[in-house]
Amino acid sequence: MRSFSFGSGWSGYVHAWTERVFTTPPPMLARFANFLPGRAIAGLGRYQWAAAVGLVFFTTSAITRVALTLRAGTHALTGASQVAHAFLAGAVYDVFVALWLTAPVVVYLTFARRSHFRRRTARGLRRLALGGALGTAIFVAVSELIFFDEFNGRFNFVAVDYLLYPTEVITNIWQSYHVAWALAGIAAVIAIAMRRARPWLRRLDERDGPVLRVRLSAFAAYTVVLLLLSRVVTPSLAHVSDDRVINEIGGNGYYAFWRALLGRDAAYEGLYATRPDSVVMAALPQLVADASLPRTRTAGRGTARAIRSSVPPRRLNVVVILEESFGSTFVGALHRGDSASGTPAFDSLTDEGTLLTHVYSTGNRTIRALEATTSSLPPLPGVSIVRRPRSVDLFTLPALLRAAGYATEFIYGGRAMFDGMGTYMLSNGIERVVEQRDYPSGTFSTAWGVADEAIFTKALAEMDSLHTTGKPFYTLVLTVSNHRPYTYPSGRIPQDPAEKRRTFAVRYADWALGQFMRNARSHAFFDNTLFVVMGDHGARVYGAAEIPLPSYEVPVLFYAPRVIRAGARVGTLASSLDIPPTILGVLGLTYESKFFGRDVFREDSTHGRALMAHNAELALMRGNRMAVLGLKGATTVYAVDSTDMLTPVRSPTDADRALVEEAIAYYEGADLLYRRGAYRIEYPVLPEAHH
What CA–CA distance (Å, rounded) separates 120 from 285? Predict the structure, then answer.
């Protein structure tokens, strides 16, 4: 991300722009009036205030779209005609949003009495509102550019979730960008603009007509137009191309944020394609059954089934390490042709363990990984179950292991309240949560928590303590360092942390992981421990595809020198939700399962599949086909090529249509089971011998 600069060039540009806009407003307002409900509103005295506010939001939205197009660079230029269509669709969004954001001003101007309109305090409030609108519009525009740089898209569920935890997010932004300069620049723009507009604003103060009867008519017309547009403007308006980035350019940040806010905890039904409940529930047993395991018996409809192990049980400790933003693109072991790997420590571990080479995360946020690797649920629409209050006593890996006599613990470097992680863990099988306040004061930290090396040092101490109890333990470790602002303690790796580069943060995270594993070898618990090291999701979202697959692919390493094959590779297509049953398969546990995932080590490689959610889209990939479920019941099948690019299938085959039905059964079935309370754990889940 380029540093913000507000030098003489910037000031000169702002001065020229504001002088042009605010010293000759009547012609611009007259043109803008074409977008309003009747040309009369902008030309009727006091309503020019509303036109000015609307013009601010419309103009900044349009400029933002241009900036995003330039940010996309040659990618956007390859679809110039589609970009033109995106700009037309975007103009409709911008008008619609500007009208809604201006509505409070229109209400005020309609019902404010003439005596009030002329008061000095009222004049000051109108100027404050106009300045506030300008500042808000510029702030949102800058925020969109930053968000687009990280997620290659408009505001979405991620933006909504981040706003609910301002401590981490605001601190992260402050550490990552020149926020003070940006705020100073915005303040300068507002000051210059309002100063240059003084003569025009004084003239507006004198235009306090028309009479109430005319104002009420104008307000009624405005309301009718807003309601009509609200029925016409839909998310599909921005779908002008098969290129996701171009569609994002055609959108509008305010509108996208509102849609994401409305869909945070929405039921599957009403948003996506549905089938009768009986059909969905009847389809689930076949979807979750381990095709290569005849001993897997379906206990009933839904996902409930008995898993019978054919190997003796192993009471191994289980340590799952979720590495922040540790996507497959960074891992040298998955890209043997790269001479300079960013993950030498992880690469060396793969020579001693079994690496899953074709696994996809279920989402692009850490809580999706926590959700998948504990509950084995497909990603439900909207917010993750980690954040939902009804997520208590679910069928999870830690709850099941706790029932088997394991001590359970979650070790995190940040605040456990973030994203509701601590509450979720303690409600679903975890006995103890270690968070930021449990580390020594002065420990190196960023907005997201203490550095990875401190997390791993704490983890070793905690596992030593658990080992002395004589009970096996399950420890879930979540790292934080590979995250913006990409800083870490100096002296650990040759790269300078002051440069705040992601590739350097990856190297530091890998260094900390390597140090942890080297130290763990000397501890008493090591020989009897299964380590699962994996990325929680990829580094960032990018690319033209509707579902940007490279951003979701993560490495998963099963490491236990006395149990797991050394140097083995498993290429079965899988999801992060397959981790719980795969771990239990290694442990040789017999249990009553409700998991949606399957044991990857015993799965027929031809039956592999991956489930993932991207914004509002839900996807199921099998082989070289992907079925995507969109809002309003939309369904699309894509062909997936060797580079993970998606091409819409124009003439779906019977197999393609069957894949769509499977996707519906997976996601609708998961939502039904969760909302009906049927995904709760029911004791006992284990034969008496394993208690």
Answer: 71
Whether 75 contacts 236, CB under 8 Å:
no
Q: Are residues 390 and 520 in the same domain?
A: yes
CA atoms within 13 A on the CB side of 310: 7
Q: Could you give the CA distance from residue 29 to residue 42 in angstroms, rounded to a whole number?
A: 7
* Domain hosting residue 38, numbered range: 8-262
**Cβ count within 10 A of residue 195:** 10
* Average pLDDT of span 323-352: 85
Do 149 and 294 share a domain, yes or no? no
Q: Is residue 126 part of a domain?
A: yes
- In this structure, the answer to whether residues 323 and 362 fall within a common structural domain is yes
- Shared domain for 310 and 370, answered yes or no, is yes
Please say if the pLDDT value at position 20 is more than 60: no
Separation of alpha carbons 415 and 422, rounded Å: 8
End-of-domain residue from the set 233, 262, 291: 262
User: Is residue 551 situated within a structural domain?
Assistant: yes
Both tokens assigned to 123: 């004049």
SS3 442: coil
> Is 272 within the bounds of a domain?
no
CB atoms inside a 10 Å sphere around CB 221 = 15
Among 48-62, 134-148, 162-176, 671-685, which is the least confidently predicted range? 162-176
Amino acid at 464: D
Give 57-93 pLDDT, tens digit per residue. Answer: 999 999 999 998 887 765 555 567 888 888 999 999 9
Count of the separate structural domains present in the chain? 2
CB 514 within 8 A of CB 301: no
DSSP state of 394: B
- Across 7-133, the runs of DSSP E, i.e. the strands, are none
Same domain, 429 and 459: yes
Among 318, 431, 366, which residue's Cα sits nearest to residue 576?
A: 366
Q: Say what the pLDDT of residue 116 is.
A: 81
CA distance 103 to 123: 19
Q: How many CB atoms lie within 10 A of CB 104?
A: 12
Pairing of strands 354-360, 574-575: parallel
Q: How far apart are CA 477 and CA 319, in angstroms?
A: 7
Summarize pLDDT for 289-312 with one digit per residue, the tens: 875 554 444 444 689 999 988 889
